[in-house]
Queue: 2 jobs
Job 1
Amino acid sequence: MRIRCSFADQTFTVTLEGNSSAREFAAMLPLDLGIEDYSTNEKIAYLPRKLAEEKGGPFSNEAPGDLCYYAPWGNLAFFHGGYKYSSGLIRLGRLDDGPRPLLKRGKFSLRIEQLPPA
């Protein structure tokens, strides 16, 4: 499944993973959230409710462009810089064309919606 995210003048698509957390997230769409910078390597957006935690455990091959869910805080984490897996982090998907749209600094309104099947 693919989704479209838009904030400010940035629009990008994300291909979601096949895990239960990603499916639960997709079922919440469409969503209008706020997105803002967090630390030096990610943007975050808080969901209206927490997702059920998948018991998948650690994952590898972390990369800029990953979309993750951070279960302890109930937020989405859009990574635009390098990061390492930490407990409570669940990968939901990856940006299709890389993290460049996430480099626009600031706090914005974010729209997330499902794309029709190809």
Note: The beta strands are 2-7, 10-16, 31-38, 42-46, 66-70, 75-79, 89-95, 108-114.
Job 2
Amino acid sequence: MTENDSCIFCKIVAGQADAYRIYEDELSLAILDINPFSRGHCLVIPRRHVPWWHDLNEEEVESLFRVARTVADKIMKAYSPDFVAMYARGRRIPHTHIFLVPTYKGDPLDRFFNALEGFQEAPPALMKLREKSSMQETAERLISA
């Protein structure tokens, strides 16, 4: 059995596992998350088994984010959330997936990101990352990578 044989997302793509398909194109598809944070929570996955989104080819990246935007528009029309939170994961299931979560003020995801932003703004070690010399060094390192 290969990794792809045991991957639930690969099984969904192949039609070997059930999923509520919301939207798809030739390279990506969006499905309802079976463990939703809120009504309308979707996952967008590439058809090809790739653990990390940054390892997708250019066409797959374009497809993945185009499908994500289309589904986010559908979520906004259907549920009128404050916004649709988007983040990429792949640690628990090593097949790229983008979370699209309808988010409302004060809900668990909103509180989580507010706490994360508060953390990001507070610790001295992170505050040093905002200094001009640190930002310049970081920019130079990323540009030359």
Note: The chain has a mean pLDDT of 89.
